[in-house]
Every structure is written in structure tokens, then in C-alpha cells.
UniProtKB/TrEMBL annotation:
The keyword Membrane applies. Keywords: ATP-binding, Cell membrane, Membrane, Nucleotide-binding, Transport. The keyword GTP-binding does not apply. Belongs to the ABC transporter superfamily. Residues 4-231 form the ABC transporter domain. The lineage of its organism: Bacteria, Pseudomonadati, Pseudomonadota, Betaproteobacteria, Burkholderiales. This is ATP-binding cassette domain-containing protein. GO terms for molecular function: ATP binding; ATP hydrolysis activity.
Length: 245
């Protein structure tokens, strides 16, 4: 069953070519759908349209068959963790609650549990400046998941991290969203990251989705022949559309 549907969606500015051009996309509930493509191809704008943060100039966006109505149902993680320096890691995770009401003891326990799941249980009282880049990214992920949103949108959240930390965070992300049944749309430039994370990978070029590739989850082991084949399929799609920078 689809959680997210984009039907013939376009977005642009008067006098310019569309940023997103007649995109139709379905994301199954509880699945991870990755978007890859060169810079400026429309990936981030498509993410904002999916979240209901931008109104499409054409077409429609549906969540569970209905127009987006409450952006609190969406969790966001961006490339920069955007943590507040004067708050501890725990209080940064609690921020989505603090902006609405005073956090309860149960909220604090939920924040602590998420940090513990991400290996930061003993660092909950540290401030962002006392954390590494990878640790800050984990805090941002915990914050996005605190309210248990059914939809999680991530815009190159691990791009600035070293390779080993990226792989650790990719595994952490999959473990958390699979346990919660969260629907995920993940934007990345990294073909290997897209294939490792995604149940499906869509290639974007000049505002359009030019190809969508189903990934066999059994092939997601990085050193398997299936993983290499899936990566090759995505690379061929990128190169074939001139989408590889």
C-alpha cells in the first residue's frame, strides 16, 4: 500500500524551466525510497513538495490518499545537523516537543532511549560542540524520530561524514525505521548509499524521474554480486541520462 503519492507534480518559477517537471512517484508504506541525481536536478525541491512545504504548480501530493494536512507527521534530517549550541544533546532531541509544550518525563525517557539506540546514551548531557560530526548527525536523526512521524525525509544527511561513520549511520537508520515501520524518502549523490538503503532507487535529471530501479534486499550486502549489479544499474541510468556530474 502506498503511503506517499506524487501525481504528475510540477513546480517552478515564472519565466524559468520547471524545477520539478511532471513527476509521478509512489512510495510504499514502510519502505525506503532513494533519489539520486546531480546537483540542481530537483531532488530537494521534490522532497519539499512531498512534505507539503511547497504547493505544486501542477498535479497533486497525497499521504495515504489524502492531501498533506499536518507537517508534524513528517520528520526531517538535513545535511547540516542544525543543532542548537546552547542545548544538550538530550534537549536538542526534545526540541520538537518543547516547541509545542513542556516535555514530560515520558518524553525525556523517549529521547534518552533514542540516544541510547544510536550509541549516545552516555553523551546525552553534552553540547553539540563537544560531539563529533557523526554524533551530531545521530542527535539530528533522534530528534527527527522522536514524535514517531510516519514519514521521514532526509536530504543528504551523511554527506559530510567519513566513509566508516556513514556506513554506521546507514545501518542505524535502517534498524530504526524498519523497527518503527517508517516510510522514508532519502536524497543522496552516493550510488552505494542509495542501493544499500533503498528498496527502490529513482534517478532524477532536469526535474524529472528518468528511471526507477527495484533493489533486491537480499542484494544489499555490500560485497555481494547483487549489490554490485544494482549499483551498476543505477550508474548506467545516471550516465545514460547525462545525470552523472
Amino acid at each position: 500500500m502506498s503511503f506517499l503519492q506524487l501525481r504528475d507534480v510540477s513546480f517552478g518559477y515564472r519565466g524559468f524551466a520547471p524545477v520539478v517537471d511532471r513527476v509521478t512517484l509512489e512510495v510504499d508504506a514502510g519502505s525506503v525510497h532513494c533519489l539520486v541525481g546531480r546537483s540542481g536536478c530537483g531532488k530537494t525541491t521534490l522532497l519539499k513538495l512531498a512534505a507539503g512545504l511547497l504547493p505544486p504548480s501542477r498535479g497533486g501530493v497525497l499521504w495515504r490518499g489524502l492531501p498533506p494536512s499536518d507537517t508534524r507527521q513528517v520528520g526531517f534530517v538535513f545535511q547540516a545537523p542544525t543543532l542548537l549550541d546552547w542545548l544538550t544533546a538530550r534537549d536538542n532531541v526534545l526540541l520538537p516537543v518543547s516547541l509545542q509544550r513542556k516535555p514530560t518525563a515520558a518524553d525525556g525517557e523517549a529521547a534518552g532511549a533514542l540516544l541510547a539506540q544510536l550509541g549516545l546514551g552516555e553523551l546525552a548531557q553534552r553540547h553539540p560542540r563537544q560531539l563529533s560530526g557523526g554524533q551530531q548527525s545521530r542527535v539530528a536523526l533522534a530528534r527527527a524520530l522522536l514524535l514517531q512521524p510516519p514519514l521521514l525525509l532526509l536530504d543528504e544527511p551523511f554527506a559530510a561524514l567519513d566513509a566508516l561513520t556513514r556506513e554506521e549511520l546507514q545501518r542505524d537508520l535502517l534498524q530504526l525505521v524498519r523497527a518503527r515501520g517508517t516510510t522514508v524518502v532519502f536524497v543522496t549523490h552516493d550510488i552505494h548509499e542509495a542501493v544499500f538503503l533503498g528498496d527502490r532507487v529513482s534517478v532524477m535529471d532536469q526535474g524529472r524521474i528518468v528511471r526507477t530501479i527495484d533493489v533486491d534486499r537480499a542484494a544489499s550486502v555490500r560485497d555481494s554480486a547483487g549489490f554490485a549489479a544494482a549499483c551498476a544499474s543505477v550508474r548506467d541510468a545516471l550516465a545514460g541520462e547525462g545525470a552523472l556530474a
